[in-house]
Amino acid sequence: MNRKLTDLPSRETTAAMPHVRFFTETIEAGGISPLSFFEAGALINDSHRFYWENASKTMTLVGIGHALTLTDEAGTDRFDAIETKWKHYCDALIKEDKDMDPVLFGGFSFDEKRSSRPSEWEKFPNALFAVPTFQLKIENGKTLVAINFVSEESETVLQFEALRKQRDQLIHMAQVQESVSTEKPALVSTKELRKDHYLKAVKQITEKIQKGEAEKVVIARKLALKFEHPIRPVAALQSVSNEQRDSYNFGMENGTQFFFGATPERLIEIKDGQAFSACVAGSIKRGSSADEDQQFGNELLEDKKNREEHQYVVDMITGVFDSLCASFTAATRPKLMKVRDIQHLHTPVQGRLGDESGIFQFVKALHPTPALGGVPTPVAMELIRQEEDLDRGYYAAPIGWTDASGNGEFAVAIRSALLEQKNAWLYAGGGIVADSVPTQEYDETWVKFRPMLRALGGSLNG
Ligand SMILES: C=C(O[C@H]1C=CC=C(C(=O)O)[C@@H]1O)C(=O)O
Ligand SMILES: [Mg+2]
């Protein structure tokens, strides 16, 4: 374990990359809940943490601190920029077989051409990724903790020793501290922001679609919640982790702000040469009994407007798989996806990777799918900017991770909220097509707000 870091081979220096070495060291640690580890990060005053639990609950990742931060740069494609920088660091990675791969976790904003007007998202650049200093991964019944460390200097032994001490302290705190309280936060107020504007935008978009200016456009709106006391990110995660058992539960901390959510929508997973995506669009609420639930589900499967919303997404995602995969398959009819608060139409898509296609190429080609943007994409994006007039920030955008071997997974950050102390902003939207009715779309957004309202102690009645 106490490798001599200074003895390890150094890497060539290039103009693009200064003399960099990227170390990682993994140990196995028992008896840690991921949320306790996450919370231990706050106890050492780190405000750069992340949390990720995949929808099938086979893998949980927690990150504390930033060993390395990657952001976009003006004038370059943000997806390519993150991919290129990450590859450079991966080339400098020094690891042994027993060490897990370091992960790069982060997200992109929905729209890189978003307005520069002040909003709650100001502190989030168009791409924000980090390799955590301390990385916890629970998979296949094993709990692993790694230290990741990037150094541009030759003398790293002392620094690495200090990180080992900190890691042991984090594990100790995670093992012995009291578990997180399950009490819901005390909500002071819930405000619907610009409801009239939203209804008008849906009406206008519907008319434009009827005139043939676009085929589908997703329009969103937001709620502002105020609380009596600042909300701790760990409490928000605890709620979604308990309540949303079939969703991707994620959280990304950026200083005093915390973006979190429980999304059912996979954008892309790459695993051992295979690519997996999911078309998720078309919605109906859950029934109050099993019979009613099934009745609603059948209604959704047969509903012309929802099937149309869904088909645009299938056409686009299968088109991307056609261009980036050596071969692919997609179901011919949507199935139902039922999560705690809502049912969706769902068509899984799966393919075998083409030679050159990596996860960021899929993210770049897929975002935004017509479940969040529209058809045609450039027209829909322009209409969203004009008519919706909302900074979506990281809502409806790709969030996830990749590792040095090219595996990884990105979800679409819907059913999400931005928290800052005593404030939270919640976002929800829906796919508008030619026969959309503004009040019905409005009602659908209330169903989509439910996971975050539930997590934050809000009223679920809309
Ligand atoms: C835009 C959202 O949902 C999308 C994903 C699934 C179903 C949708 C729908 O039926 O409208 C939306 O396209 C949201 O949750 O804010
Ligand atoms: Mg819809």
* Count of discrete alpha- or pi-helical segments spanning 4 or more residues: 10
Structural class comes to alpha+beta
Query: Mean of residue pLDDT?
Result: 93
What CATH architecture of the largest domain would you give? 4-Layer Sandwich
Instruction: Name every ligand kind in the structure.
Output: the ligand C=C(O[C@H]1C=CC=C(C(=O)O)[C@@H]1O)C(=O)O, magnesium ion
Major sheet characteristics: 13 strands, mixed
State the gist of this model:
By secondary structure, this protein is α+β, with helices and mostly antiparallel strands. It is 31% helix and 33% strand.
Structural features, described:
- It is a single chain.
- The chain is of the alpha+beta class.
- The protein has two domains: 5-176, no CATH class; 187-455, Anthranilate synthase, CATH 3.60.120.10.
- The chain is built from ten helices and 23 strands.
- The strands form two sheets. Strands 1, 2, 3, 5, 8, 9, 10, 11, 12, 13, 19, 22 and 23 form a 13-stranded mixed β-sheet that branches. Strands 4, 6, 7, 14, 15, 16, 17, 18, 20 and 21 form a ten-stranded antiparallel β-sheet that branches.
- The radius of gyration is 22 Å and the shape is globular.
- It starts with 20 loop residues before the first strand and ends in a 7-residue tail after the last helix.
- Residues 1-15 have low confidence and may be disordered.
- Ligand ISC is lined by residues 218, 220, 265, 280-283, 309, 344, 371-372, 396, 414-415, 428-431, 448.
- This is isochorismate synthase.
- Residues 195-448 form the Chorismate-utilising enzyme C-terminal domain.
- Belongs to the isochorismate synthase family.
- It catalyses: chorismate = isochorismate.
